[in-house]
């Protein structure tokens, strides 16, 4: 992208115009860079999966017909990788939807009940113990129920994947907002990596996260969903101690909370 040369001494209209133009070009350039990075990351993700599929199918073609155990092992690996690709594809489609449309279907619902429902859904898949501590019996908010549930599931799934034993979920009411804190006692995130965890495809440890089935898209989806609700999401973490995800949501969508 070409920029206009700026003559700093001249403060006339032409100078102002060139400055605005250069500023716009910088934004276009940043957006194009992000787009290129996204295409490169998405391609890399699928390339890795395709390499795995190619490897296992070759294995079956060479030895799989004589060695039934190898045949079974390869088919299981192929199946798992297909599921992963499907999951990543759905998440990518969802991100694209969120960026272009982002409509909310608002209704009034009880966030305490929604948290219980989400825990109930994931608990059978995990050996970690989850304790839910709401400050009130009911907490009615106006929001997009499905989207809020999706955020809870993303954060809880991460907490279950990366915690050692315990997860605690606190739900409190503030003046015009609710605060949901999900705390785990897990491996934590290094301080220098924290600023990047909401970026698409960002994984703290690529190889480790591939084993846990992570795509690096969950937190970026959660952040966009919370932004749509005019809420906030923040992560605090200490390596080998644990991670805390703090979400605030306005109780009433027409009255966003006053930021402190
Ligand atoms: P993934 O699908 O890989 O979990 P996310 O976008 O949800 O992707 O998270 C991005 C990365 O942040 C993860 O790959 C993981 O390295 C790190 N992370 C997220 N949540 C936690 C957590 N509770 N404890 C430790 N690391 C976490």
TrEMBL record:
Keywords: ATP-binding, Cell membrane, Kinase, Membrane, Nucleotide-binding, Phosphoprotein, Transferase, Transmembrane, Transmembrane helix, Two-component regulatory system. It comes from the Bacteria. Residues 41-253 form the Histidine kinase domain. It catalyses: ATP + protein L-histidine = ADP + protein N-phospho-L-histidine. It is a multi-pass membrane protein. Its EC number is 2.7.13.3. It is found in: Cell membrane. GO terms for molecular function: kinase activity. Residues 1-33 form the HAMP domain. This is Signal transduction histidine-protein kinase ArlS. It comes from Paenibacillus aceris. The lineage of its organism: Bacteria, Bacillati, Bacillota, Bacilli, Bacillales.
């Amino acid at each position: 992208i070409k920029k206009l040369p700026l003559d700093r001494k001249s403060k006339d209209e032409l100078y102002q115009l060139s400055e605005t133009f250069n500023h716009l070009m910088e934004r276009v350039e940043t957006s194009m860079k992000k787009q290129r990075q996204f295409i490169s990351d998405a391609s890399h993700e699928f390339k890795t999966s395709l390499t795995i599929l190619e490897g296992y199918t070759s294995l079956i073609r060479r030895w799989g017909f004589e060695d039934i155990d190898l045949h079974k092992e390869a088919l299981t690996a192929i199946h798992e990788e297909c599921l992963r690709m499907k999951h990543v594809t759905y998440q990518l489609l969802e991100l694209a939807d969120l960026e272009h449309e982002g409509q909310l279907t608002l209704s009034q619902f009880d966030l305490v009940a929604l948290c219980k429902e989400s825990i109930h859904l994931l608990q059978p898949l995990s050996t970690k113990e989850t304790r839910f501590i709401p400050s009130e019996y009911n907490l009615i908010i106006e929001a997009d129920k499905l989207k809020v549930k999706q955020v809870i599931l993303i954060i809880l799934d991460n907490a279950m994947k990366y915690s050692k034993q315990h997860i605690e979920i606190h739900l409190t009411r503030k003046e015009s907002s609710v605060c949901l804190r999900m705390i785990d006692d897990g491996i934590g995130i290094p301080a220098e990596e924290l600023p990047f965890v909401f970026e698409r495809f960002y994984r703290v440890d690529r190889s480790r996260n591939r084993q846990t089935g992570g795509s690096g898209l969950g937190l970026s989806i959660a952040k966009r969903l919370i932004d749509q609700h005019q809420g906030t999401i923040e992560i605090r973490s200490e390596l080998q101690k644990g991670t805390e995800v703090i979400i605030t949501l306005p109780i009433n969508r027409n009255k966003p909370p006053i930021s402190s």
